[in-house]
């Protein structure tokens, strides 16, 4: 642990970034295997089944996003306290964060389960898609508690700089999911096939297992965080602090989730072919952004720990290097995707020529500005890690509601582009938001975000009371 902290706070920045990012990238690649495995097997059921998952995902993501601000606050505080050498507060923050995540996930999961049919009716889902989407959505909401719990385990472990343990857990659970998906989707022997809903069942089982293992790791306390059962007693002052710190994060992710949902309304209005092409393109985008997502998470950990240690200039250099590397990598992947677009679509839907053609067209338009995504992800991660979640929230709202959706609506409904107008909204938005992020980063106001300073008001929330009262 001491050697790792010395690397993060004093060692070469490229080495520190890569030592964090590589295990995260591998874990994210494997974890994306959940969605890829689902898409691969569900694709064998036809375009309607793929459309069912595509329509369901933005809705479940929105509900998850509503409770994610508290999780983001916990991860930010954990990394900064780790950088400041406050192991007592690291443990306290981790326990309280897990408690809040469990409560919020149960509430939103139940709410989403009840509202699922009404949400699908609002989306105007086609009759041939409705049944599969409803089953998939409801099972997904049941499993939200496990998705939340394990996501928090990963985030907190990243906050203390431990990225290998989550990788080992993901390896096992993804292999299990790969076996369970065809079993639950198509059935075998006494196990009946559940169709699209079977994919959600497989994910639920494996995420539940991952959550149990994660909690056990925390309770054993050998990897940077030590939890004890008594630490889960509610600390109202910390909860209040985390609420106000994390509220912009919840609004940010909810804005993104709601934007995806509203975009699904727009996509659905063009029929099953467009929905299927949008779903495949979204899966491809998710895959190609895995490396830069890992880099942005590494940036977040290093920025948070260096700010906690008072090394603000080093934190800025971390963000700049991460953004540059991510831009170069995604630009290269964009070139490859443009050349290989039809083959990428065939991986998901091998036998539908119309979906292959439309999906390839979507990918070739969308990939034109992928480099901007890399810049945006790393800079916004630095904002969050510094505690300036309000900036990240504003950028998300501008991206979704002032640029992408208005542009997609106007181009698709009021020009000859039709569905292609939706596709063109992606590169324009990525380019614009990356420029906005760079300008805001250059202002330097995000540097005033050291949450561990006792003599500083933190994001206008509760001040030093937690420390003064000796909650260590």
From TrEMBL:
One of its GO terms (cellular component) is plasma membrane. Keywords: Cell membrane, Membrane, Transmembrane, Transmembrane helix, Transport. It is a multi-pass membrane protein. It is found in: Cell inner membrane. The chain crosses the membrane at residues 12-30, 50-72, 93-115, 135-153, 165-189, 195-219, 257-278, 284-303, 324-349, 361-383, 390-410, 422-442. It holds the Pfam family MatE. Its main location: membrane. It comes from the Bacteria. GO terms for molecular function: antiporter activity; xenobiotic transmembrane transporter activity. PANTHER family: MULTIDRUG RESISTANCE PROTEIN NORM-RELATED, MULTIDRUG RESISTANCE PROTEIN YPNP-RELATED. This is MATE family efflux transporter. It comes from Noviherbaspirillum pedocola.
């Amino acid at each position: 642990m001491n050697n790792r902290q010395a690397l993060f706070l004093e060692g070469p920045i490229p080495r520190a970034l890569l030592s964090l990012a590589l295990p995260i990238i591998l874990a994210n690649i494997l974890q994306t295997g959940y969605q890829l495995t689902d898409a691969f097997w569900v694709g064998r059921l036809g375009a309607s089944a793929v459309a069912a998952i595509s329509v369901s995902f933005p809705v479940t993501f929105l509900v998850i996003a509503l409770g994610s601000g508290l999780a983001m606050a916990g991860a930010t505080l954990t990394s900064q306290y780790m950088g400041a050498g406050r192991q007592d507060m690291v443990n306290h923050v981790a326990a309280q964060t897990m408690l809040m995540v469990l409560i919020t996930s149960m509430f939103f999961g139940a709410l989403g389960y009840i509202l699922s049919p009404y949400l699908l009716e609002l989306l105007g889902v086609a009759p041939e898609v409705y049944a599969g989407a409803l089953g998939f959505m409801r099972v997904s909401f049941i499993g939200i508690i496990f998705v939340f719990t394990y996501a928090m385990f990963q985030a907190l472990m990243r906050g203390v700089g431990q990225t290998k343990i989550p990788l080992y857990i993901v390896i096992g659970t993804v292999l299990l999911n790969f076996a369970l998906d065809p079993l639950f989707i198509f059935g075998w022997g006494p196990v009946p096939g559940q169709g699209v809903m079977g994919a959600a069942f497989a994910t639920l089982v494996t995420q539940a297992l991952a959550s149990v293992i994660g909690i056990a790791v925390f309770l054993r306390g050998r990897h940077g965080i030590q939890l004890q059962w008594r630490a889960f007693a509610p600390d109202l002052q910390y909860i209040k602090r985390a609420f106000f710190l994390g509220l912009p994060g919840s609004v940010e992710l909810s804005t993104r989730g709601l934007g995806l949902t509203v975009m699904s309304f727009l996509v659905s209005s063009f029929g099953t072919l467009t929905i299927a092409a949008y779903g495949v393109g979204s899966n491809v985008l998710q895959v190609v952004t895995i490396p830069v997502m890992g880099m942005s998470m590494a940036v977040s950990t290093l920025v948070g720990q260096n700010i906690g240690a008072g090394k603000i200039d080093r934190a800025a250099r971390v963000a700049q290097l991460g953004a540059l590397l991510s831009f170069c990598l995604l630009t290269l992947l964009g070139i490859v995707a443009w050349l290989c677009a039809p083959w990428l679509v065939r991986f998901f839907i091998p036998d539908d020529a119309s979906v292959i053609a439309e999906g390839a067209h979507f990918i070739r338009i969308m990939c034109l500005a992928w480099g901007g995504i890399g810049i945006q992800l790393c800079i916004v991660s630095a904002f969050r890690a510094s505690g300036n979640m309000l900036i990240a929230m504003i950028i998300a709202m501008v991206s979704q509601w002032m640029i992408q959706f208005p542009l997609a609506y106007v181009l698709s409904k009021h020009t000859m582009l039709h569905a292609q107008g939706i596709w063109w909204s992606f590169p324009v938005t990525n380019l614009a938001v990356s420029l906005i992020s760079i300008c805001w980063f250059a202002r330097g106001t995000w540097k005033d975000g050291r949450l561990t300073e006792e003599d500083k008001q933190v994001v206008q929330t509760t001040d030093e009371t937690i420390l003064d009262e000796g909650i260590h």
